[in-house]
Design goal:
This protein has 206 residues and is an alpha+beta fold. Strands 2-3-1-4 form a four-stranded antiparallel β-sheet. 54% of the residues lie in helices and 15% in strands. Helix 1 runs antiparallel to helix 3.
């Protein structure tokens, strides 16, 4: 690629990385709790803007790669596209494919992880006829589906939790639990240790 084309592609890929950090950070630093979530939240606001920047930079890159040459070729002549430009085009398409995967990461990553997970979301009580209570919590601070998956992972490891469902789109966590082993305060503490804020939705406890 020519220097200008390289700079454009590098800029587009950097913008794509920034656009995806809102979900990459919680995934890479799941144990960092509040600190990682706070950083991810800052990048979440940049996500739509970085996607626009990425698209514009790639449009410029494709213009440079496919802009008409000054030399005209008659039909059947021996002239052809230079090898360097062919390589530039191949490199541009590869960079585009990589960037598409990266920028769509927040949308397909959680579905992929859920599909390959072997642990069930429902935990059976050891004692037959164990009491069951249900609470619905508002969970603030989730920036993508990967965050919801992280909350579910924390709940899965908590003894006394029978079943759970965390919705990123609704910002809620529905949890069924054994009140003899676990309290609502403990459930909230588990989620808040993962880096999120919680509150009990009125009329959604019991």
């Amino acid at each position: 690629m020519e220097k200008m084309e390289k700079k454009v592609v590098q800029g587009a890929m950097l913008a794509a990385v920034v656009a995806s950090l809102c979900c990459i950070i919680p995934l890479l630093f799941a144990g960092a709790g509040v600190a990682a979530i706070a950083i991810a939240g800052k990048f979440a606001g940049l996500h739509p803007y970085m996607l626009v920047v990425t698209a514009l930079l790639f449009l410029v890159g494709f213009y440079y790669a496919y802009r008409p040459t000054k030399v005209s070729c008659e039909p059947g002549s021996a002239c052809e596209i230079p090898a360097s430009r062919k390589r530039a085009r191949v490199g541009l398409w590869l960079a585009t494919a990589f960037t598409v995967v990266l920028t769509t990461f927040p949308y397909w990553s959680a579905a992929l992880v859920r599909g390959t997970a072997h642990e069930p979301q429902t935990q059976a009580f050891q004692a037959a006829g164990a009491p069951v209570e249900r609470v619905v919590l508002r969970v603030s601070g989730m920036t993508c589906e990967m965050c919801a998956l992280g909350v579910e992972s924390s709940l899965r490891q908590q003894p006394g939790v029978r079943s759970f469902h965390v919705s990123f789109s609704d910002s809620v966590a529905e949890v069924e639990y054994d009140p003899s082993q676990l309290s609502v305060a403990q459930i909230r503490s588990v989620i808040e240790k993962a880096g999120y804020q919680t509150s009990v939705l009125p009329g959604k406890e019991g």
